[in-house]
């Protein structure tokens, strides 16, 4: 009896080793598993398409299970009747007419679906190998209009303080705001997000900057507000800023003692012309009053 038990034990080991050798030679029956979500950023109320791509290497497919987080919501088993099955999940609406062993289409997605989605693929006998692929879906709500740009004044000169504000309609996630003065990014303040009653956020940002002559190098001054939500939303509002001076704006030069003077101004030219005229008058007066001794009788 003991010899028979030993024989059975040895045969079992041989079978297991043979199965492992066959698996190592023929492969697992599953490879190149990946999950893509299109679009990765989807607007609330729109649809999302999930594509689970894999190669079975000749092994039959046992099942494909779909998860949002850790909860299964859809399963495809080709040997069952019907092959497709839906599990209850709040907010998930699977379109059964276009969902199968590799694709799942979700209709009318809501914010609660943002997060990890997983497809779990299992090969049939003899390997029953299981592979898993995960990707992220983000559900968004975009601003319904471009940003609103406000400036304290409409005319500014070098040395003036420019105060401005830019705000966006509510969105999820909240927008990021960037200020551009002509083509240069300006401002050190951060974008502030303000919550709304429906779980959205409207964004705002302030700008306080002193204008320099270099800002007018192109002959005009244009302030722009750029609002962005990820890579799917980008809108710009702009405000041309005029100068109250009709003449060209002179460069401001700082003297060594710290005093600021204006070069090329009309007042400086008047002073120079006055000194020249006074010099000419002094010379004419001296010449007129000079009488040589030889002419005196």
TrEMBL record:
Domain Ig-like, residue spans: 42-138
InterPro entries, sorted: Ig-like_dom, Ig-like_dom_sf, Ig-like_fold, Ig_sub, Ig_V-set
SUPFAM superfamilies: Immunoglobulin
Keyword Membrane: yes
Entry keyword annotation includes Transmembrane: yes
Matches recorded under PROSITE patterns: IG_LIKE
Regions crossing the membrane: 12-33, 273-291
Keywords: Membrane, Transmembrane, Transmembrane helix
Name listed for the protein in its UniProt record: Ig-like domain-containing protein
Organism listed in the record: Anopheles funestus
